[in-house]
Design goal:
301 residues, 8 strands, Arginase, Chain A, 8-stranded parallel beta sheet, alpha/beta
Length: 301
Amino acid sequence: MRLPMARPEEVDVALVGVPFDGGTTNRAGTRHGPREIRNQSSLTRRVHHASGISPYDLVKVGDCGDAPVNPIDLMECLDAITAFYAGIRAAGATPLTAGGDHLISLPILRGLVKDNPALGGPVGMIHFDAHSDTYDSFFGGHRYTHGTPFRRAVEEGLLDPKRVIQIGLRGAISDASNYDYAKSVGIRIVFIEELVERGIADVMQEARELVGAAPTYVSFDIDIIDPSQAPGTGTPEIGGVTTREAQQMVRRLEGLNIIGADLVEVSPPFDPSGLTALTGATLMFELLCVVADSVARRKAG
């Protein structure tokens, strides 16, 4: 977004890249997502045309670079990302992240939530995605993939499942029991059919009421958008929302107590026109507006 490079202690909102796709189970390439989202973000401007929010006038925002990753050692990589985000938390900044595959949400939540007395326990989450990402394992018992982060986050006490809502889920599943865990712990699942029938305003009002005023994380997987408009992703599912509908959903996060947000699964190798990265950058600006507004509200007391 043409912002200066900064250290977390110098900003209120830290823009971060996590160039990682070690958790991908289908088509790799999201490690290149942060670079291309940065490239496309040079087109963003200062003021949101609908809300009037100018994030750079509300809070200090800077690009804090990329989290360290080790592409050949998954567990070491998760630990390094966790430590990086714990440092951001300690510096008093709120992170807005460009991924990377969806597994990165787990170490981000570890860094922000674990042993954080200011939060008072696990946080809520509004999760936009075509997939639940609450599966137990893939490929013979591998428990850390982009299909498992939120199951691990619930198990580790990072997320309060009764304050988690997943919006836009769709597509055939590998087993009839794929959603059983999420439902058993109280996660609210809104399939795309329900979203279409009820409408964005109604579903987002439910989401706002579910998370309330307590600390909440936001995770946006680009594959909630129909692949006709965002083809550059690893696990595309037809029948998704439009880019305009995605913007409308994110705008309805304004006023919530957001402790961090990510936008994940942009995969440039499958995005020859750059459209998906542009969509990701534009939605990151949408997220930046609501995150900056949330940070400014907290600073004001």
